[in-house]
Design brief:
Elements (H helix, E strand, L loop, with lengths): L22 H7 L4 H13 L7 H8 L3 H18 L3 E6 L2 E6 L4 H8 L9 H13 L2 E2 H8 L4 H9 L3 E6 L6 E5 L1 H7 L17 H14 L53
Antiparallel strand pairs: 1-2, 3-5, 4-5
Length: 270
């Protein structure tokens, strides 16, 4: 009785020809399209209290990071094309939903009415100095703003908008930088997205030098300025008969000054 041998063929759920059992199943699991995982990503992003990184989203849904990135890009385009009241932004190294800018007034009136959630003008100015010149010490911020900023810096630290980032190599003073929370609140991907400063604004070093120069040129507060029309209330006025030039007839009231009066101790800053 003869025996015939048959070569094993591929079977559903069996071993692959190269011996990788279940290899085809693994490929099937990882072959979901961006459209198929879009709902899962939306659900995760709806619950996010902070921006979620692409790598974290990919690990959660069990898909390659490239597939998740493509899906996120498709969601951004879809929301823009359909004019939804929200949008998906990439901020602070991750992704999160935000209401659209054109609805900001409506949202503020509905949600923020009666709440004191805004920073003071002093805090905004200090935060701007730190953002554009970081890392920067407290002393340099005070020099730029011209006031003591200790209290404002404490407020910004407490709100998580700035943080200590080492020490200045020259002075040893603690220096400050903005945080990822600052990027999130500002809706920025990175500091490179900060709007450019006005072209006429000087750099910080130039500003400090100019402030120091103006301080040295400031007039003496107790020195009286020369009056443009005469020596002053205690001296002879323009109509005083004694205020005459012995070499020229007429009074000072009959003569126009040959040169305009000069205010000593002041610099024309216009």
């Amino acid at each position: 009785m003869s025996q015939t041998s048959t070569a094993p063929g591929p079977a559903a759920g069996g071993a692959s020809p190269d011996g990788d059992a279940g290899g085809q199943d693994a490929l099937d699991v990882a072959s979901r399209t961006p459209a198929e995982i879009g709902g899962a990503l939306e659900a995760l992003l709806m619950l996010a209290e902070e921006p979620l990184r692409t790598a974290d989203l990919a690990a959660t849904v069990g898909e390659p990071e490239s597939v998740v990135a493509d899906c996120l890009a498709e969601l951004v385009a879809f929301y823009d094309e359909t004019g939804r009241g929200f949008e998906l932004r990439q901020v602070g190294g991750g992704w999160r939903y935000y209401t659209r800018e054109e609805h900001a007034e409506l949202v503020a009136a509905s949600v923020l009415e009666g709440q004191q959630a805004k920073l003071s003008q002093a805090a905004l100015e200090t935060l701007a100095v730190v953002a554009y010149t970081q890392p920067i010490s407290r002393g340099r911020v005070s020099a730029v703003r011209g006031v003591n900023v200790d209290g404002v810096v404490r407020t910004l630290l407490a709100r998580g908008l700035i943080e200590e980032s080492g020490q200045d190599p020259e002075s040893g003073a603690v220096v400050f930088t903005t945080t990822s929370y600052f990027l999130e609140r500002m809706g920025l991907r990175s500091l490179d997205d900060l709007p450019p400063l006005a072209p006429h604004l000087p750099e910080v070093d130039a500003l400090e030098a100019e402030l120091g120069q103006l301080g040295s040129l400031a007039p003496d507060p107790v020195a009286p300025l020369a009056a443009p029309d005469g020596p002053g209330p205690d001296g002879p006025g323009p109509d005083d008969p004694h205020d005459t030039d012995p070499h020229e007839p007429g009074t000072s009231a009959d003569r126009a000054p040959s040169t305009p009066p000069t205010h000593h101790g002041q610099e024309d800053l216009t």
